């Protein structure tokens, strides 16, 4: 029966449900991520949830996954996803009555170099203010937990109790049972053959068995994501990667253990290893030059019928890692290999999934690009269901925004970046590190060629942006608008012109004087007010007009077509020679904005904060008649009172500076976290913004900031340490009037 799709379909329709013609949400894809979303939506109260699976549940990447579950993530926001997944998996069997095969022996990340130890200390400083259990442990404790290790090179371990592994098939079936229990419908085999948007913003989802009219659709199709995206004109930047893991027969030393071994991740060896029954399972991440992309699927599509098949294994390709694993875990030398699994997992260029509503198609959502779908499934299902049901994301997950990619993410870039991301999976990660595979894209500004040899370039949404400039002798080293227009009935056209226009910033005490040399427009304080914007003409620039805005201490921002950018840059540099004009990058700008007490988007301001606790009440008029977006929510926040506020810290440091997300301590307890930090060259000290309880926000309050395993003294001070230009001007005028 399972080999005959028609018979299987008839049985499922007869005994499980009748075909639905309408749905609130249609989820396409029956892997662990898609089924988790169906479970969470139905449990959250959505009545008409339908999941369509083209063959059978878990087909694709889920069924052959190694099933690792880890609290650990090097980022900040995804820690919440991992945490929510594990907490769900701990209770899912009791809730649904379905066994999930969840083992929680813990995990250890092994550090065998001094740099690795620093990396673990760095991660500890970013973990204490999260609920995730995480500990930096000694070699003796590592050996106690994993007695089969060769300890010759082990210097330390990062230990997460509660980590482990789960059976991906059983997990998915338990989630499916829960989804059905709460009212969701799961149809398979039901391949989607067409997706047609309607004028009302809904979708007609075509299958061989009929059409479903859906209020929204969610693409959760794993390595079929590009093909489903192609049905509506999108080319999602996802690519299948060959990932191998090895399973051994029974190992006597493992069988003799009384407790299950924790999962280990040998970072220098770039592999994970866990107990599999009485044997071992280990999976490496090959280097860039050896790993294999299934790029033919990008070009020609996934072969018809591929679902629970595997690739040919290639032990020679991973022998370097096998030998390192044998050195670290000597019992592997005499273990018999009974299976080598080589299957496709999906990568995006930056290794992070694409989660949320997609611009350019109303009510089209994605949950794709999961290289680690098992640990992400539970948390992402909860995250997306909360967002869909309430209309707001429950927390900031902007790094997974599907709209971070665009036309610039072409196939050569995607392949180069996926190869780099896979090959660099376990390399030491440094703050502010840049990776250069696939760069530059075609997104280069009009001044890129003028500046590329003078600057160390950073990468932002496909653009090359100078982080810092070299001196002589140095080496260069959402809201979501479419939804508002549709629901509000506004007569507005949205066009993405990001690639057509460039921006130059001119800042500093002489910026106004320099710009005045090349325009007849009045740029005086009286003629061009703070936060005003005008269209002006500049001498010697062929373009019709330049848009210019004055942002106070952040300077003047000039917007022009890319073709005019080089000419404008050269005109400004020529005009400023007498004033000693020079280039500056984003690192210098970050340091200077901290000196002035300016908040940064994505740091002090994000989806997890509100303007009142961020100290931005000056920019908000809650008593204005207009019912602006967020007004009611802010009024409620103000009425309830704040529990924390953004504070401004100076720090006593040595050779390390804060960068954000460090843990803040007081009297041995975690009390908050930094949001951003840098060294202040004007005041010769380290500065940081931090969120602290309101009772700890008074000027003079002393706290400690954890960095690289040490706690550094810090103090709340009055912001800013360096006055802004408008403030200086006002004080100067006041002083003169008194004189």
Automatic annotation (TrEMBL):
Q: What range(s) does the FAD dependent oxidoreductase domain occupy?
A: 24-387
Q: Which residues form the FAD dependent oxidoreductase central domain?
A: 391-441
Signal peptide residues are none
Q: Which SUPFAM superfamilies match?
A: Aminomethyltransferase beta-barrel domain, FAD-linked reductases, C-terminal domain, FAD/NAD(P)-binding domain, Folate-binding domain
Q: Which GO terms describe its cellular component?
A: mitochondrion
All copies of the Aminomethyltransferase C-terminal domain together span 644-722
The segment(s) forming the GCVT N-terminal domain are 475-624
Q: Which domain of life is it from?
A: Eukaryota
Q: What is the official name of this protein in its record?
A: Dimethylglycine dehydrogenase
Source organism phylogeny: Eukaryota, Metazoa, Chordata, Craniata, Vertebrata
Give the gene that encodes this protein. DMGDH
